[in-house]
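Changelog-adjacent note: as of this version, every example in the card shows the full chain rather than a window. The one below runs 144 residues end to end.
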Amino acid sequence: MAQLLASSVAMCLLLFSVSASCSDVLAVGPVRVGMKDEEVVRSLGRPAATEVRSGFIRKTYYYNGLVVSFDEDMKVAGIRSSHSSYCLDGWLCPGCGFREVGERLKTANATISANKITIYGDGCWVVATGTSGSVKEIDLKCQP
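Full-length structure tokens:
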């Protein structure tokens, strides 16, 4: 099951962009790529802090252990998790064993080093960083 889920994440990253149908797979906790800002607030509540800027990323919401970034259409284009409650697709979580994550992703389009795993895709990619043998942070980003 874990191998199948890892493969589905890798395939979606390889084949689809932000607005595509893989948004149900590219999720960290309850937040999916492509969700509108009001959907995120309905799911997580009001953010602890908000940052507004110019460029592709227009707004960022800060929660405890979760950062959600929105593009110019106010749709989720980036999600960063540092809390074990917010996992990529239910299995890649801050706090899980870095080596085990690397083993699951061996066959994916990924680069694995001692403290960083990057899964490459056409429009999105995931970076998991680790320290002391555990995943510290998961960062999912999508480009315009």
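Structural remarks: Strands lie at 27-28, 31-32, 49-52, 59-63, 66-70, 76-81, 110-112, 116-119, 124-131, 134-142.
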